[in-house]
Design goal:
The structure is a homodimer. Chain A contains five helices and no strands. Chain A is mainly alpha-helical and about 120 residues long. Chain A has one domain (about 5-120): Multidrug-efflux Transporter Regulator, Chain: A, Domain 2, CATH 1.10.1660. In chain A, helix 1 (about 5-10) packs across helix 3 and helix 4 packs antiparallel against helix 5 (about 75-115). The first copy, chain A, is elongated, with a radius of gyration of 21 Å. At the A-B interface, helix 3 and helix 5 of A face helix 3 and helix 5 of B. Chain A binds a DNA duplex (30 and 30 nucleotides) through helix 2.
Chain lengths: ~120, ~120
DNA sequence: GCTTGACTTGGAGTGGCTCCAGACGGGTAG
DNA sequence: CTACCCGTCTGGAGCCACTCCAAGTCAAGC
């Protein structure tokens, strides 16, 4: 499939996909005789995973490392697991931040309720 | 208090505080006779709020708007409330994304458990 | 009086895209 | 056949929100 379809399915923009390919985070995609990229379902699966990792704050560097491990085959699975576990920890920390911020917002909003028309 | 203390208390770096002041998101801070910034507790409270809003993804533009409303005094409280409510919605959406990603990670990790030593 | 350290400014650099100009090639319309 | 539109290509500029740095000022301590 071509880039627009891969983009729709993965969630990444066509520009971002090209950018990822350039930076090696995505393997060089096969090209048709016309020179256009031809994405396989596996490519799209990979892009989709990247979409989620990136969206939830994994840095490029780490994604590059992860991609490299993937290229190196099965014997890197333990390390890949540890990358994902680390990210999972990050997600938890992030959720706590969001919760903390939600509390602060609630507090602020309640304060506004009380003030409404009073002093600042 | 000086910038280093304000930085510690708010969580923002000194550079970021100066940057925020330059961009108007923070009111011009009082200067002592030595030309150094002299932060009041209210300044720090404001910085702390900004820290949380920014950290949880509120764009600068919106924070600028919020700062402007704040400057305009109490009659803008309803609009300030709606800014915070909108952000609160954003937090919820963000939390769902994190959860979705956590699911995907769990799925991947489980797949790795099964593969461990088998085929890629 | 000299060093140390916190602060100042302006400006350059960074990460991760995002947008754009200009070129190409395939398909439909006139 | 020509005109035009689409989607794609590449390389490069632009953007956001910092972050870091150089060069300078000043105050306090030895």
């Amino acid at each position: 499939m071509r880039i627009s379809e891969a983009s729709m399915k993965s969630g990444l923009s066509a520009d971002t996909i090209r950018y990822y390919e350039k930076s090696g985070i995505v393997p060089a995609i096969d090209r048709g005789p016309d020179g256009l990229r031809n994405f396989s379902p596996e490519n799209v699966e990979w892009l989709t995973l990247l979409y989620w990792l990136r969206k939830t704050g994994m840095p490029m560097k780490e994604m590059c490392r992860f991609a490299e491990l993937y290229r190196l085959g099965n014997r890197t699975i333990p390390e890949r697991k540890s990358v994902l576990l680390r990210h999972s920890e990050r997600l938890k920390a992030r959720q706590q931040e969001l919760e903390r911020c939600a509390e602060i917002l609630d507090y602020k909003l309640a304060a506004y309720e009380n003030i409404e028309g009073g002093k600042q």
